[in-house]
Amino acid sequence: QEGGIYKSTDQGLSWSICLDDASGGLPITALETTDHALYMAMNLGTVFKSSIFCGITNTLNNLDELFVSSVWTKLQVVTGVDASSDLVFVGTTIKDNIDNRYGVYFSSDSGENYTQKNNGIGDYSVQALAIDPYDSNRLLLGTAGGGIFKTTDGADNWTAVNSGTIGSLSLAFAEDPTDENHLLAGGSVGLPEATGGFYETNDGGSNWNRVTALQVDPVALDISEVNANTILAGGYRGGIYRTTSGTSGTWSNVLSVNTPISRFSRDSVSSSKIYASAHKLGFFKTDEHTLGDLGV
Prior knowledge:
Elements: E1 5-7, E2 16-19, E3 28-33, E4 38-42, E5 47-50, E6 58-59, E7 73-78, E8 87-92, E9 104-107, E10 115-116, E11 126-132, E12 135-143, E13 148-151, E14 159-160, E15 172-176, E16 179-187, E17 197-201, E18 209-210, E19 218-223, E20 231-235, E21 240-243, E22 251-255, E23 261-266, E24 273-278, E25 282-287
């Protein structure tokens, strides 16, 4: 069966349909949850919300009236004080022959109303979006052609923070759960408009240093909650790589697949369990306490 959202209650061993063909045939590009709802973003710029996670889905924006996207739609959310006050950040890519309905959009009322937040970004498509786990007013934005942007005021104003980088396409970010100033960024040469690169900052994004110990441009990244020296990097090709000695240490290939790794996710109950999504291959998982190779 194709389309829709699937749910697993046994750590990915089995799956059941949760929302049948919820996307109407469009690829689902992001799933994010708060304490109140499941938010779903799709190609072309549509965002949905399910207040009971698997049940009636409510459309939060109209494709023809609010914002649009030519390919994927990025999504980040923050739990509000109640079900009507979740913070929702949406990032979209430029669509040909459409007016300026792209970029960053923000909602403070669980997606009922949005405001465009493009000040300082310019005419760039959003390829990656990350919220500081310590402060929801601080976000990083990866673009196609413009590099990395940062905001400290909840997306009202954006500033380019590309010092030390040469990559023009930013596809992935990872925040250190133990240090708000330690971040990773990656871009891939697998896409035609990209120069790629793997970068690290220790000052919150003001300056970046290129990671040279791993000759892969990652499109998915994860920093361990247990030890910040343990990092996972997913490539556009080649699979998943891991180091336990920081970015300058030794990297090993723990999963070899010739397809993009689109995302790492941690189990909400047991954060040591990590899931990886591989394009057209499904999910893989591992437990960082055992440091074993990733398996189905």
